[in-house]
Structure formats: structure tokens, C-alpha cells
Amino acid sequence: FQAVLISTTEATPYDTEHTYLPIANSILQSSLAIWNDVDILKTAPGAAVYMALAGAEISKIYALNFLLGLFSLVLIFNTGQKIGSVKIGIIGCWLYAISPTLAYWTVYPMGEPVYFFFIYLWIWACAWTSALDSENKWTIATSIFIAGLALTCAILTRATYMLWLPLAMVIFGLFSTFSKKYLNNLALAKIFKRYVIIHLIASICVGAYIFKNIEKFNFPSVAVGAGNALYLGSNPVFFGQEPVYFDVMWDNLGVKKG
Fold first, then answer.
1. CA 154/CA 206 separation, integer angstroms
2. Cβ neighbours of residue 231 under 8 Å, at least 6 residues apart?
3. Whole-prediction pTM value?
4. What angle do CA 247, 251, 254 make, to 5 degrees?
5. pLDDT in tens, 101-151
6. CA nearest 197: which of 156, 143, 154?
7. Which value, in Å, is the radius of gyration of the alpha carbons in the chain?
8. Degrees (nearest 5) of the Cα angle 113, 223, 244?
9. CA distances (Å), 76 to each of 94, 122, 137, in order?
């Protein structure tokens, strides 16, 4: 009900109308030309590509967002089931369904709905690979690939985790070594090793996109402002919150240079 109410009462967001939809329409007109156009640097490409798949029509975007939200419930349930029990999965779905914030951002026609979906898919695939034993090699490889691809898509939709990829690989690598040498837990060490590979896949894919931007535009990032959540999260003046909550304008220079 909340999702339907939002889709019938909310106006088209400014960023969607002036950034995402124009890029989505460019993708529909010429799927290759936009990647050589500097306009693609305005935002991470995931949201625009997603909206192009919906024909760059707001009504279809709302409908697709709603379907992703329903499928996210399935992922949340199965994730809870894999890491805990059926009860955990049911509780997770219930908390997701009653959250007014998630209900709002699950259907809101911007980048958040598809970003959340890829995050849920990444976490689900990580839970899947964690629950597998070492004999299921092909299944393990499949779960790792899906997790790496989902994380890649999430970062190319919202680049907030982009700067953490190398550090995450190091941390999970250290956890794997510690689990093997000091805890004598080979199963746990293998799980952390899988997490390293997942982040390596995402690093290679995201790195390839950044390299393309360097070659085409001499711009070493996913998009202008990518990673700004990390910048804002480390800003002690605003306690990690967005400046607009304190009636202050965005520090655009800091975001672009940071």
C-alpha cells in the first residue's frame, strides 16, 4: 500500500528528470554512443541503464521497482534461512515490509531501488557461498561469481563502496590467514577466501570501467561525485550526515576533488 501510494503521489525527482532519464533515453537511441559521451560521467551508469530497460518511462520504472522489491523479499527470506533458520528469514521479511523508509526508497524512481536489489543479491550470494561445503566446487564458483557480479552492479549504480574494495580484500585475506593459523578453522578460512575472490571480481570489473573513463575522458573514477558518501561520512562537522540536513549546501568542490 505504501509503495502504491508513493507511485501515485510523488513527483518525478529532479535528478531523475534531468540526469537519469536523459541518459536512459540516450542509451535507447544509441546504446554505444553514450559511453563515449562525457555526459555519462554525471552519474554512475547503473540507474540510467536500469531505467533504459524500463523504456525510460516513469510508470514502467515504478512497476519494475515494485517487482524488484517483491523479489528482494525472497532474497531476504532465503538469506535469513541460510544463515539462521526459517524464523530468521520470516523476521527479516517482516522487518523489511513494515519499514516506512525501505518502502519509500524501494519504489522511488531514482538509483536506490536497483542499488538496494543488487546489495540484497550480493548478501544473499555471500550467505549462499558461506553455507556450501568444499565439495560443491561448481556451485561455490557460481555463488562467488553471482556475488562478485552483484557487487559490481551495486557499485556501478551507487559508488559508495568503490573505495573500500581493496581494503576489504586485505581484511578478508587477513581473516582467512588468522582463521587458518590461529583458530585452526579451515572451513572459516575458506569462506573468508571466497569473500576475497568476490571482492577481486568486483575490483576487476569496476576497475575496467574506471580504466575506460581514464582512456576516454582522463577521469579516474566511476562518475563525478562517486564516493561522496565516504567523504560525507568522515566529515566531523556534520557527524557523518548530509549537509542539507543542517541547512548547508553541498561541498561540490570537495566531492569532486575527494
1. 10
2. 254, 255, 258
3. 0.87
4. 160
5. 888 888 889 999 999 999 999 999 999 999 987 778 899 999 999 999 999
6. 143
7. 20
8. 65
9. 10, 11, 24
